[in-house]
Amino acid sequence: MKPIAFAARSLRREFRHAELATLAAALVLAVAALCAVATLASRVERAIVASAAELIGGDLSLTASHELPQALVEQASRRGLATSHLADFPSVVFAGDASRLADIRAADSAYPLRGVLAIREADGAERIVHGPAPGTVYAESAVLAALDVGVGKPLRIGGRDLTIAGEITRAPDSGNLFRLAPRVVMNIADAESIGLLAAGSRARHRLLLAGDESSLTGYAEAIKAQLPPGAELTTVKEAQQNLAGAFERGGSFLRLAALLAALLSGVAVALAAQRFARRKREEVALLRCLGASRAEILLALLLELLLLALPACLLGLLLGLGLAASPAVLAGDLLPGATPSIPWQPPLAAFAIGVAVLFGFALPPLLRLRDVEPMRVFRRDDSARAGRFDALYLLPLGVAGLLIWLGAGDAQLALTLALGFGGVALATLLLGVILLRFVRSGGARLSGALRFGLANLARRRALSLVQASALALSLTAFALLAVVGPSLLASWRAELPADTPNYFLINLQDDQRVPMQQQLAALGASNVNVLPLAVGKLVAINGKVPKAEDFPDRRAANWINGETRLSWSAELPPANRLLQGRWFSANETAPQVSVDKMWVDMFWLKLGDELTLRIGERDIAAKLTSIRGVRWDSFRANFFLMLDPATGSALAHSYIASFHLPPNVSLAAFSQALPNVSLIDLNQILDRVRDIIGRVSRAVIWVLGFSLAAGLLVLLAALAATADERRFEAALLRTLGAHSAQLSSAVLGEFTALGLVAGSIAAIGSGAIGIALARRVFHFGEYVPPFGLLLAVVLCAAALVALAGWLGTRRVARTSPVAVLRRG
Questions:
Q1: How far is CA 586 from the centre of its chain?
Q2: What are the pLDDT digits (tens) for 76-129?
Q3: Measured between alpha carbons, how far is 30 from 144 in angstroms, rounded to an integer?
């Protein structure tokens, strides 16, 4: 026997049968879905990294409280990196007798290296520029409105008049909540000549760098040991934190959709392989009679699978890459200016996963063919074989688990899906066994056609359980995508309602709170929230001075070396969730503090720990009494640290306010009335988050097409699993006098019961998985599955399975009894 030649001939001969066509189609769908969606996710991730550079104006940023050594600039030049020098500091600017606190950015002519700096000139035209020329400045509208000046007028900084060359309309780090005043950009040479950057100034010096990824990585590694004390290195991956939650959720939705399509394809592969193996038993027995060894037969079968897998996976790969233009349309402009090329890793991974799905789900039934004896040629004995190979059926579970683990990209998503689908399979098997026992014991009291249909399920117990499990798993996956998925997206969309705060006010004083609220009410503002704001410094944890090198999380250095903003409230703020401990009571006698979970993980904190905070000239030792989960993407004023109101109210503080303002409402008069208050516009960020939600929604619907096709394959494969037995039984019953109407009634009863069982378990399972996903993966506050739609899933499943079963068995019922009985 020549295994390769035999496998090729057998594949050509066998491909006309439904099960191999199902195998090939399932592989094409799995690889295409994984390739297209993984490519989409990878391109979005690259787009995020590329456009996050807009927040810092370059690909890499070095920041220090003093001027950075020239050696760092020379080293960057040797590596072919572009550089730009900046210095940021607060200063009061003047126009006539009016004054305004501003955040000054002194920049050279190369700024920005990445992103866009755009200004509106005196004639109203918008122009993209770089750093201002000597003797000129660019200013944000809040500065111009507060000082009642326009473009072309003088602005005094540090005692020198500079000409306003344009109003800033777009700039790197727009929407930065840590900037406490509106921005003015001046030339760095002017700042040096005026003396604003002299020793002892409050300026933060920055060196921006831009270039190719390998040069940047090499530079960052090379200079770590040369950084002066207090200097910080910021990459683009750390820059866009205010959108991190949105992109993380979007990526989870896309990975979930691709995984469900691949798992559905795996179920179809397993069912088709089961039937293929059962039909090959006679052929294997004949080959054994002709002298073929078990090893040769097994090798031939594996080669036949491989010859099927390679072209099918290749076709799926080409289909996925061909559809890559569609994901590019969906996600190409998630972030402006990001045009990443198609990566090669996701397509190769999808191809490898496709091969793994085929062999993982198809090998167990094929390996059982090794035990087919030559005597089967003369006697068709289906007695159970020894159980030593039953462990082979753990292989599909292992492959499915590995697929979930690798494809999820998130431990919580992988664990939730694995436990959810495992619970659905187990529940189906248990409920199936109970129902089949009930049919055997109480089925005699049912009507004739229905009794016979349910008896078919009980008689083919193993195949019935396999059918029910496959249908339940596929319906669960489909319900997750078609019903639960859209409701989860709706919950995400509901977290950003129409009145989500789109402006922040910083540096609001106590006597300005009432006038501020009155003016906002006159402008039509809504959802106004005001919280106190104090600035302090973390000086000790449990009496010990923290050191940045003691904590592996590099973010800890920013909080240890820098300032900490904190607040207080008698009630738990709306965008906060209490995870551990208790909220403050009205009669607290000792200082207490509540911290966000990120601080708990970063500083290894626990309830009862003591944090010492220096606020002004006062040190406060506060006991940690609660841990919160904060929704940072809620666009409300949120804080990592919150003190009890009794302690906080005694501190020097200002206020921070958030509110929603309808579009096209001018805030010029408001800024003039409150000249000391900094106004931060978040509309651009909110629009981007909503755009992400919309694009992810369209991408999930697009992937739903793959899942629908895979679900239909599962249904066809489940029906085909018992086609041979049905053909023989129908012929026998027709020989005994049964007519077509009776056979159709029996089939409808059988498949309606199968659909009801599978649909009910799928509805319950998908709802439970949806709740777990909402809480553990997407972190929604409250989520209620759409029970009405899930009930419709049950009814539709029963109707669809019954209809498919009836259509699939009409041909069987019309088969000539003599022909079938002769073949049998």
A1: 40
A2: 999 999 999 999 998 899 998 888 888 899 999 999 998 889 999 988 899 999
A3: 58
- Of 204, 162, 201, nearest to 184 by C-alpha is 162
Please give the Cα distance from 105 to 515 (Å, whole number): 31
Contact call for residues 183 and 168 (beta carbons, < 8 A): yes
Confidence of residue 495 (pLDDT cuts 50, 70, 90): confident
* Nearest one of 685, 697, 210 to 481, comparing CA atoms: 697
Question: Per-residue confidence at 755, pLDDT binned at 50, 70, 90?
Answer: confident
Alpha helices, H only, 584-682: 597-603, 645-648, 668-673
Whole-structure pTM value: 0.65
Write out the two tokens for 169: 């309309």
Select the highest-mean-pLDDT range: 87-96, 347-356, 417-426, 658-667. Answer: 87-96
CA gap 275, 722 in Å, rounded: 8
**DSSP 3-state of 683:** helix
User: Is the confidence at residue 175, as pLDDT, over 50?
Assistant: no
pLDDT at 47: 59
**Nearest alpha-carbon partner for 284 in 265, 304, 269:** 304
The pair of three-digit structure tokens given for residue 636, joined into one six-digit string: 């409300």
Which residues are CB-neighbours of 516 under 8 A, at least 6 positions away?
A: 505, 508, 657, 674, 677
Q: Give me the DSSP letters along 240-306.
A: -GGGHHHHHHHHHHHHHHHHHHHHHHHHHHHHHHHHHHHHTHHHHHHHHHTT--HHHHHHHHHHHHH
CA distance 686 to 571: 26
CA distances from 15 to 7, 21, 27, 354 (A): 12, 6, 14, 19
pLDDT at 536 over 80: yes
Structure tokens at 383: 């007695």
With contact defined as beta carbons under 8 Å apart, do 457 and 436 qualify?
A: yes
Evaluate whether 723 touches 19 at the Cβ level (below 8 Å).
no
Rounded-to-integer distance, Cα 138 and Cα 152, Å: 10
Alpha helices by DSSP H, listed for 595-655, are 597-603, 645-648
Per the CB < 8 A criterion, the answer to whether 205 and 68 are in contact is yes
Work out the pLDDT band at 592, boundaries 50, 70, 90: very high
Sequence-distant (≥ 6) Cβ neighbours of residue 781 within 8 angstroms: 495, 577, 631
Query: What is the per-residue pLDDT across 401-449, written as a single tens digit (0 to 9) for each?
Result: 776 776 666 677 778 878 888 888 888 888 888 877 776 665 556 555 5
Tell me, rounded to whole angstroms, the distance of Cα 762 from its chain centroid: 23
Confidence of residue 450 (pLDDT cuts 50, 70, 90): low
Whether the CB-CB separation of 479 and 762 falls below 8 Å is answered with yes
Phi, psi for residue 575 in degrees, rounded to 5? -90, 20
Average pLDDT estimate for 5-33: 73
Q: Phi first, then psi: what are they for 578, rounded to 5°?
A: -80, 120
- Give mean pLDDT, residues 657-679: 81
| Backbone angles phi and psi of 682, in degrees to 5 | -110, 10
How far is 463 from 440, CA to CA, in rounded Å? 16
DSSP string, 539-563: EEETTB---GGG-S-TTHHHHHHS-
The three-point CA angle 317-322-324 to 5° equals 95
Q: What is the pLDDT of residue 75?
A: 92
**Contact criterion met (CB below 8 Å) for 432 and 465:** yes
Show the tokens assigned to 475: 């319906």
Query: Could you tell me if 316 and 28 are in contact, meaning their C-beta atoms sit under 8 angstroms apart?
Result: yes
Tokens representing 363? 């090998």
- Give the CA-trace dihedral at 383, 388, 389, 390, to 10 degrees: 80
Burial of 665 (0-12, 13-18, 19+ CB in 10 A): exposed
The CA distance from 370 to 364, in Å, is 11
